[in-house]
């Protein structure tokens, strides 16, 4: 039976979406003209750059972290909410909705913490035609100094109160955007849920100082020689965002429809957020880096993956990975893997060797050409031997022997060997290995049944003292 | 001889030569160097380091480029190879460090080690910083070094870092040997060689230029110094031994290359034949093309699979428009005063594997210039007294025999390295020999000193 053709159309807390790809509230959604071009490029929705009392921005607003020659692996900004008059933003929302009725426009809002002010803003945004509201309780810089943004998100009572005020008035779904700059994301999430929020979005940016100039000693972005902490985002923050998404979704008191945010730049990232329960995803840094056009492959790639896996809709795979994230104490202590080096793929860089000796458990050795396994030779001894070797430029024809050694085949003495009896299965070697599938972690059948720490402690099989440590850690 | 004028100020490269011999491998700028440096896997006990005769810690200097520690990168290079700047340009890296790069087994381009090394060394030179090493505390010991080529320079640097005086004697007016006079200008410009030697001289090396050392002078130096290092290189290029060779218009590859590098030669005639197919022959043939020849042939008595030039040099020559005549041998040069044509015969292999002229296959090649590049002799003759019976040091077919780890010859007071010991290899091999000998001399002198 053939599966129906997959579709990206989905519904997020009652809002029909052409696809789950939204632009996050940020510079790419600053004005209607941008958002209409984004919709033309294929974005399913946009969260308008936060509307409130217009602010004045500083000049010099962004900075970034480059990683080994790649630009903007982490991105930081000290830009505030929209600096355009509220009526201009609202008029443009109306224009966009008129031209693009099927596309989602969410109004992101941030006003001072007064019931009437919120009521007024909610009314105006909905009158303009917004499909939903996102409450910006996350902005970590500037606005928080004025008692807004993360100053609200960090105090559960404020978070709950303002959500409640908004819900009193709102006719469209209310999404609360959470700040990650807290010790436990579930606390503000629960507060928002108590306040009646229809959905959550997470994460907002993380407090950051990206770098210090080693000549001027000034941080970046540089505003007249000074800087201020900013909000960090981009590929570097994705693991932090995924963790927080999982924490929210695994907590019944927090769980609501969730729009995932944080380092998403490709369909792969999007699929991961959806597998942890997100209904839509929001993108900013990647669009700021490469433009709106990136959404084409996000759609194309996700559809292809869905077809391959046999999923017809987003809902069919949403949250499938949630049951696979447990607490540590529930993991199987008797599961055992060991590293296996595939000699045919090994290029002889020996990074696994040095990583295992210095960073792990000293169980990878360079002894394949020794008459017997030699686990006593240290990296320093290997290097000292190499330094004593005398080599010379090969002269073709004269040095046929030395020259003839093909660089296409890794010499046996350069291929490390894993001492499987001592390998703890930490994965480090397979992570440092530059060649895909060259080091695989293979399951060893030790014949032992599943047993978790939880079970072991319940059986009283835990050494004295360990019980106490365990209870303090949880 | 006084050493106050900069070597570089004593020469000016002809601007036309500069233009015609632009960099074969253009330098990296910072934005290109850093991603390339980051591509390096940072192998443990790296094969590139093992493949380098001077064992430069390649991953270490590359990671220092990535981190922006350019001074540290240059120091890492110089610590292993005091001529790291010229080696970055002149080394046949395809068969050395880059040839050993594990990336070859990964379907990826090897790391561009040579260009990264040049980037680090150029940065050091441009920064104007001094050589990052100090001479050692003076020991009162001194060594005479015969020849001022790469082997002697590397040896001298090791000696100076250990507080031993180094007196270099060279018959030429400038130091550097083949590094200055013999490497194709598009690989290593003469002024770059001199710039590097100037930096090295900050260690306090004493040069004696235009000084020929014969057997008597050698005996004198042996008496005056605590040890002698022989870095005398190879001798003249062999002659063909055929009629017409004395005609004007017959030269050799080393003279041609030294001629254009030093500015004495700016032009060659239209039709050129280079005899021989080694790396030097290729350099000479390409030089002829760059200097205006329109018809350049390399003639070689064997086939492409036997030529001693590296494969990439052969490809380079073909790209420059050099034509190859295989399995031929010059038998006579014709001309009235100057060369007009070269008569050649084809060669065939016979049963025992040797190659012989093929009767009736003779043909002529019209040429204006013949450049011989059929190997060099040795000039270690002055080391031998009374017909070689009481040689100063033991020789084998003209090559000086040494203990490879220390450079020591059969005569404990004499050390040697470079082409005169290995028969003619690369600059980097000479540097490695000189470095080992410098360390070897210091170790030997220390023992002598303690015993005395």
Quick check: average pLDDT of chain B? 93
Instruction: Classify the helix fraction of chain B into a percent range.
Output: 25-40%
Largest beta-sheet details of chain B: 5 strands, parallel
Label the overall shape of chain B: globular
Radius of gyration of chain B, whole Å:
23 Å
Task: Estimate the global geometry of chain A from the Cα principal axes.
Answer: globular
The CATH homology group name of the largest domain in chain A: Aldolase class I
With helices defined by DSSP (H or I, 4 residues minimum), what is the helix count of chain B? 17
What are the segments of chain B in which pLDDT stays under 50 over at least 5 consecutive residues?
none
Rounded to the nearest angstrom, the distance between the terminal CA atoms of chain A is: 48 Å
Structural description of this entry:
The complex is a heterodimer of chains A (474) and B (452). With 474 residues, chain A is an alpha/beta fold. Chain A folds into 2 domains: 315 residues, Alpha-Beta Barrel (TIM Barrel); 122 residues, Alpha-Beta Plaits. Chain A has 17 helices and 18 strands. In chain A, the strands form 5 sheets. Chain A has an 8-stranded parallel beta barrel with strand order 3-4-7-8-9-10-13-14, surrounded by 8 helices. In chain A, helix 3 crosses helix 5 and helix 8 packs across helix 10. Chain A is globular, with a radius of gyration of 27 Å. Chain B is α/β, with parallel strands linked by helices. Chain B folds into 3 domains: 120 residues, Alpha-helical ferredoxin (Fumarate Reductase Iron-sulfur Protein, Chain B, domain 2); 128 residues, FAD/NAD(P)-binding domain, CATH 3.50.50; 123 residues, FAD/NAD(P)-binding domain, CATH 3.50.50. Chain B has a 5-stranded parallel β-sheet, sandwiched between helices. Chain B is globular. The mean pLDDT of chain B is 93. The interface between A and B is large, with 32 and 43 residues.
């Amino acid at each position: 039976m053939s599966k129906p053709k997959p579709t990206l159309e989905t519904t997020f807390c009652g809002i029909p979406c052409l696809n789950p790809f939204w632009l996050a509230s940020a510079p790419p959604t600053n004005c209607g003209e941008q958002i209409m071009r984004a919709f033309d490029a294929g974005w399913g929705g946009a969260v308008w750059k936060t509307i409130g009392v217009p602010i004045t921005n500083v000049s010099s607003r962004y900075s970034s972290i480059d990683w080994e020659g790649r630009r903007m692996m982490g991105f930081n900004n000290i830009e505030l909410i929209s600096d355009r008059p509220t009526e201009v933003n609202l008029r443009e929302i109306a224009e966009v909705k008129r031209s693009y009725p099927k596309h989602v426009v969410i109004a992101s809002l941030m006003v001072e913490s007064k019931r009437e002010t919120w009521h007024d803003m909610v009314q105006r945004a909905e009158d303009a035609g917004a499909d939903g509201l996102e409450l910006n309780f996350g902005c970590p810089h500037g606005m928080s100094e004025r008692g807004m943004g993360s100053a609200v998100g960090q105090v559960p009572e404020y978070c709950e109160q303002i959500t409640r005020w908004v819900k009193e008035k709102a006719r469209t779904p209310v999404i609360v955007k959470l700040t990650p700059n807290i010790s436990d994301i579930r606390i503000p999430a629960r507060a928002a849920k108590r306040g009646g929020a229809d959905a959550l979005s997470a994460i907002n940016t993380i407090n950051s100082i990206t770098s210090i100039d080693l000549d001027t000693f000034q941080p970046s972005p540089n505003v007249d020689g000074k800087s201020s902490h900013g909000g960090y985002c981009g590929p570097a923050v994705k693991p932090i965002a995924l963790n927080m998404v999982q924490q929210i979704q695994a907590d019944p008191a927090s769980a609501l429809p969730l729009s995932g945010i944080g380092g998403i730049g490709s369909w792969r990232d999007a699929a991961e957020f959806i597998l942890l329960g997100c209904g839509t995803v929001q993108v900013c840094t990647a669009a700021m880096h490469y433009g709106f056009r990136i959404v084409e492959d996000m759609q194309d790639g996700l559809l292809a993956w869905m077809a391959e896996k046999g999923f017809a809709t987003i809902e069919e795979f949403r949250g499938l990975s949630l049951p696979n994230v447990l607490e540590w104490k529930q993991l199987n202590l008797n599961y055992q893997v060991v590293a296996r080096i595939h000699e045919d793929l090994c290029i002889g860089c020996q990074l696994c060797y040095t990583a295992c000796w210095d960073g792990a458990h000293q169980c990878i050795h360079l002894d394949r050409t020794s008459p017997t396994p030699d686990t006593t030779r240290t990296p320093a001894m290997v290097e000292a031997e190499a330094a004593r070797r005398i080599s010379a430029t090969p002269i073709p024809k004269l040095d046929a022997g030395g020259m003839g050694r093909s660089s296409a085949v890794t010499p046996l003495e350069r291929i490390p060997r894993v001492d499987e009896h001592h390998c703890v299965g930490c994965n480090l070697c397979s992570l440092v290995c530059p060649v895909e599938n060259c080091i695989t972690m293979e399951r060893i059948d030790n014949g032992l049944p599943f047993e978790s720490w939880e079970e072991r402690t319940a059986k009283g099989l835990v050494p004295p003292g360990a019980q106490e440590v365990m209870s303090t850690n949880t | 001889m006084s050493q106050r004028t900069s070597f570089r100020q004593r020469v000016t490269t002809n601007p036309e030569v500069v233009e015609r011999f632009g960099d074969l491998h253009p330098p990296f700028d910072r934005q290109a160097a850093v991603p390339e440096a980051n591509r390096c896997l940072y192998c443990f006990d790296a094969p590139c380091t093992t493949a380098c005769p001077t064992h430069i810690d390649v991953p270490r200097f590359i990671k220092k480029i990535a981190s922006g520690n350019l001074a540290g990168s240059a120091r890492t290079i110089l610590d292993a190879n005091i001529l790291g700047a010229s080696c970055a340009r002149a080394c046949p890296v395809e068969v050395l460090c880059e040839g050993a790069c594990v990336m070859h087994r990964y379907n990826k381009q090897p790391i561009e080690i040579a260009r990264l090394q040049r980037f680090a060394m150029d940065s050091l030179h441009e920064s104007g910083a001094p050589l990052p090493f100090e001479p050692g505390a003076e020991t009162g010991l001194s060594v005479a070094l015969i020849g001022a080529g790469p082997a002697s320079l590397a040896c001298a640097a090791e000696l100076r870092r250990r507080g031993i005086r180094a007196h270099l004697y060279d018959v030429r007016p400038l130091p550097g040997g083949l590094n200055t006079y013999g490497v194709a200008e598009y690989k290593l410009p003469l002024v770059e060689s001199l710039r590097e030697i100037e930096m090295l001289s900050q260690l306090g090396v004493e040069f004696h230029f235009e000084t020929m050392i014969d057997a008597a002078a050698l005996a004198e130096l042996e008496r005056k110094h605590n040890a002698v290092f022989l870095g005398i290189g190879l001798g003249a290029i062999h002659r063909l031994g055929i009629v017409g060779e004395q005609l004007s218009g017959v030269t050799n590859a080393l003279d041609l290359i030294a001629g254009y590098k030093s500015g004495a030669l700016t032009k060659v005639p239209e039709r050129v034949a280079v005899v021989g197919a080694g790396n030097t022959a290729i350099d000479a043939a390409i030089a002829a093309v760059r200097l205006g020849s329109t018809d350049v042939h390399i003639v070689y008595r064997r086939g492409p699979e036997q030529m001693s030039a590296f494969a990439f040099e052969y490809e380079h020559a073909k790209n420059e428009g050099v034509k190859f005549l295989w399995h031929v041998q010059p038998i006579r040069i014709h001309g009235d005063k100057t060369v007009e044509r070269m008569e050649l015969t084809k060669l065939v292999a016979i049963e025992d594997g040797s190659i012989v002229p093929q009767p009736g296959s003779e043909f002529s090649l019209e040429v204006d210039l013949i450049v011989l590049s059929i190997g060099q002799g040795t000039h270690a003759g002055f080391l031998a007294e009374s017909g070689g019976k009481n040689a100063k040091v033991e020789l084998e077919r003209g090559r000086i025999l040494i203990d490879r780890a220390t450079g020591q010859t059969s005569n404990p007071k004499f050390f040697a390295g470079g082409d005169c010991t290995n028969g003619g290899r690369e600059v980097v091999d000479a540097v490695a020999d000189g470095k080992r000998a410098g360390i070897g001399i210091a170790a030997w002198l220390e023992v002598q000193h303690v015993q005395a």
